[in-house]
Design brief:
Helices cover 60% and strands 3% of the residues. It is mainly α.
Amino acid sequence: MSSTSGAQAHGAGGRVRIWDLPTRLFHWSLAALVTFSIVTAKLGGLWLDWHMRSGYAILALLVFRLLWAWPAAGMRGSFTSCAARASCWLTCRGGIRTTAPATTAGRAVGGGDPRRAARAGRHGPVSPTTAASPRGRWRSWSAAPPASGLSTLHRWGELAIYALIALHLAAVLFYLLVRRDNLIGPMISGDRRGIDAHPARDDPALWLRAAVMLALAAGLTTYVVRL
């Protein structure tokens, strides 16, 4: 389905674009990089260099997501106004199971959505990964006595990631098996049926803006790594 037709779809009977392409690519790229980081950490040896690079790539993705969620989100409402309503967590799911159309179908800020909490928590503890094999000023810092503390922090971060991945998968399975709500399909195709919501914007101009933000995030990450 083209981005144009996805943007035009609106109504309970049609397909509605709820996730734009940059958000979907971010989600699956992050999932792949986290998996790669876990595998390379277990392999050890020369694979630790790739583990380090994967950590830097994850950091760049997180910076991109912060940039993308704020000015580029194009949200017409704020989280504070959303949180004031009892149905905030449903509205933040893109209008799913709501009686009135949401302001926008995609990229709303999650308030009580357990899936968003799982993602946010899972993504957050990754930054200690970059301490596994630091460079530049970070290398000299890690050579000091606090290095043992960084290793401990890295280990606790790893355990937290395992726990939050399990929580994320459990939430997805709960929605799929108990609530009969498939969350995986829309994250692949970007579209969802049977909801009454304004479609999320998803067009080449948006993709170009995402590419620029990703380049900025990569540049910022490279600068920090080389300090």
